[in-house]
From TrEMBL:
This is 3-isopropylmalate dehydrogenase. Belongs to the isocitrate and isopropylmalate dehydrogenases family. LeuB type 1 subfamily. One of its GO terms (cellular component) is cytosol. InterPro entries: IsoCit/isopropylmalate_DH_CS, IsoPropMal-DH-like_dom, Isopropylmalate_DH. Signal peptide: none annotated. Its EC number is 1.1.1.85. The gene is leuB. NAD(+) binds at residues 76-89, 281-293.
Length: 358
């Protein structure tokens, strides 16, 4: 099969980690007889420099035509002026909105060989942590009405959390489907003791639960969830939650796995098209030094194979190769610990590639 991939390398370490990932995809293509075609596109800071805007029209159009989008990272100090009207991160919102990507899947997996990277105690981690956070991405307070106001001479500001049943149902469905492919346990997180929008969220999740009798569902308030994630993370399998709660909890979930350089993500919509990117940023402090960890982007490509192309065996081949390389003690600087072998971006990419071929 032929698959068209729109590639946005972006800024900072983006191009470095994307290069290794494309090598891996080519290797998977050769081994399993697929052809991946790439179209390299500008977005983020580099697009501001060349075109004056973070998301040029032709980039969005090409992404719409592609089967999937692979993104490195965007942003950096050069474009970081908080007063600037044009910012690299606007490219991400434009891509999510323009491609209708309303769901963000973030697996937070603590690999056994990286146990020491987690800030949690051994007794809490046990044999590992494996959580998948399903975050609503295009609704809620980040997209609701907002503004400034002045009441009785006092200046104020407001943001609005708003969800409708359809928005909750479509993200809920993805969460239940994800749970069905995993350990069939779903925790829906809200603030239904206070927020009306959370009460609607809970009602829709309960309705959906009837369609998935095999999935064990529980509801949890967000403040409790923030605690439970560090107290007993092993109780979670799949978490589904709103845009803002998901933003915060998915960062917390990724922190307990130890390294930001290891965590992939997928943004999905109604169809098969998705955007795949590491959760880390452009790491300007280490850009150009050849020491960035490309594994989060490589694992994002594995998610692309699984979710956009239905190539489960190929996705597993990448994930298995990554685990083998870690088990053999190879580490980039961000995950390095005593007794292991320090390697750079290209070397670890090559090691994963060799494992896939072996
Ligand atoms: P960051 O994720 O870029 O870096 C945080 C720390 O983690 C840094 O010390 C960095 O060196 C390290 N790090 C990150 N990824 C790594 C990797 N693959 N290998 C080794 N070390 C890694 O976050 P930040 O410093 O807050 O942001 C830097 C820039 O990236 C900002 O302009 C920010 O807006 C942008 N950003 C972009 C995205 C995105 O494109 N999706 C996400 C977050 C931040």
């Amino acid at each position: 099969m032929n698959y068209k991939i729109a590639v946005i390398a972006g800024d900072g370490i983006g191009p470095e980690v994307v290069e290794e990932t494309v090598n891996i995809l080519n290797c998977v293509g050769d081994k399993f007889n697929h052809k991946f075609e790439y179209e390299y596109l500008l977005a983020g800071g580099c697009a501001i420099d060349e075109k004056g805007i973070p998301l040029p029209e032709e980039t969005l159009e090409a992404c719409k035509k592609a089967d999937a989008v692979l993104l490195g990272a965007v942003g950096g100090p050069k474009w970081d002026n908080p007063d600037a009207k044009i910012r690299p991160e606007q490219a991400l919102l434009g891509l999510r909105g323009g491609l209708g990507l309303f769901c963000n899947l973030r697996p937070a997996l603590l690999y056994a060989p990286l146990k020491e990277a987690s800030p949690l105690k051994d007794s809490i981690i046990g044999d590992g942590i494996d959580i998948c956070v399903v975050r609503e991405l295009t609704g809620g307070i980040y997209f609701g009405e907002r503004g400034r106001e002045e009441i009785n001479g006092v200046k104020g500001a407001y943001d609005t959390e708003r969800y409708n049943e359809n928005e909750v149902r479509r993200i809920g469905k993805i969460a239940f489907e994800t749970a069905m492919k995993r350990n069939k346990k779903l925790t829906s997180i809200d603030k239904a003791n206070i927020l009306e929008s959370s009460r609607l969220w809970r009602k829709v999740i309960d309705e959906l639960a009837k369609e998935y009798p095999e999935v064990e569902v529980n509801h949890m308030y967000v403040d409790n969830a923030a605690m439970q994630l560090v107290r007993n993370p092993k109780q979670f399998d799949v978490i589904v939650t709103s845009n803002m709660f998901g933003d915060i909890l998915s960062d917390e979930a990724s922190m307990i796995t130890g390294s930001i350089g290891m965590l992939p993500s997928a943004s999905l919509g109604e169809g098969k098209k998705g955007m795949y990117e590491p959760i880390h940023g452009s790491a300007p402090d280490i850009a150009g030094q050849g020491i960035a960890n490309p594994l989060a982007t490589i694992l994002s490509a594995a998610m692309m194979l699984r979710y956009s192309f239905d190539l489960e065996e190929e996705a597993k081949a990448i994930e298995k190769a990554v685990v083998s390389v870690l088990e053999e003690g190879y580490r980039t600087a961000d995950i390095m610990s005593e007794g292991n072998k320090l390697v750079g971006t290209k070397e670890i990419g090559k090691l994963v590639l060799e494992k896939i071929l072996s």
